[in-house]
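Incident review: delayed structure delivery

Summary: a single-chain prediction request sat in the queue longer than the usual turnaround. Root cause was a stuck worker, restarted by the on-call engineer. No data loss occurred. The affected request and its eventual output are reproduced below so the record is complete for anyone auditing the incident later.

Affected input:
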Amino acid sequence: MRLVAAAFLVGALCIVAASANAEQYPSKPISLLVGYPPGGSVDTTARLIAERLSSMLQQPIVVTNRPGASGNIAAGVLAKAAPDGYTLYVGTSINAVSVSLFKSLSYDPIKDFAPISKFVVAPSILVVNSAVPAKSVKELVTLAKASPGKLSYATTGPGSSPHLCAELFSTLAGIKMLHVPYKGGGEVMQDLLGGRVDLTFSNPTSVMQLIESGRIRALAVTTAERFSQMPNLPTMIDEGYPDFDLSAWYGLFAPSGTPSEIIALLNANIAKILTMPDVKEALAKQGLEASPTTPEALGRELKSDIAKYGKLLRDADVQPQ
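Output delivered after worker restart:
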C-alpha cells in the first residue's frame, strides 16, 4: 500500500508541476523552427506572425531556419524537442506529402506533432501560355483528349504542389499530359512564357502580374472557394470537377505531449493575430489567405492530406526517395 501511495503522490506532484509550468508559460524565449531558407513565403509568414505573437506573450520568439529535405530536417528537430512549448515549428502541407514521398522520415507527423493552428491557405492557379488556344478548363480538356500526351505541364519536381495538382487534374478529367519537371519556379515561368511548356499550376504571387499583362492565361483556381484577389476566376469545382480541392497550407505545431493549456493559449493568440487587418493585408500580398483553425481541425486536415497525397503519388507511380 505504501508503494502504491508513494506512486500516486509522485504522479500527482508531476501533474501539479506540469500545470504550474503551463500557467507560467512563457517564462523564456521561444524557438520557432522553419524548414525553409530566409526570404521565402513560409519564412516571411513565420516572421510576420512571430513578431505579433512575441508582443502578446511578452517573450522573444527566435525564428530558426533549418532548411533542407522539404522541411523534414526542421520537423525532425521538433520531434525530438521537449514538449514544453519552447520549441515550435511552422509545418506545411508538404509534411503530409513527405510521408509517402520519402522512404524513411525521422519523425511521424501524426505521433510526434501536436497541432496548434493553421496559419494560411495558398491556392494554386492553372495557367497556360498565350499560344495555347484554350480559354477554359473545358477547352483545355478537349485539346488534351484530341492529342493524348502532347500537352506538357511544368512542375518543380515529383511530389511538388504543381505535380500533385496536375496529376489530380489528369485523373479527374481522364486525360494524359507530358510531365516536365524543373529544379525551380523561375525556370518553370521562363519556359512557360517562352512557349516551351503549355501549362502549370502556380502560386498566385508568381503569376498574377503575368496574368494581368496578358502574357499567360488563367483558367481556374484549385481551392474549393474562389481566390479573393481574383474573384472572377472560377474554381476547378465550378468547372465541373467537384472532387478537386487542393491547396497548400502553413500551420503551427508543437512536440507531441505539450500541455493542453499551452496549446490553447497559442491557438487563441494565433486566431487574434490572423484577424489583424495589417497581417491579413501582408499575407494577401503573398497570395495567402488567413485561415485560423482549432488544433483538432488542423490535426484532421493533416491526417486527411496524408491519405489524399499518398493516393495521388501512388496513382502517379512516384516512387519514394
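Verification: Residues 2-24 form the longest helix (23 residues).
Action items: add queue-age alerting; document worker restart procedure.
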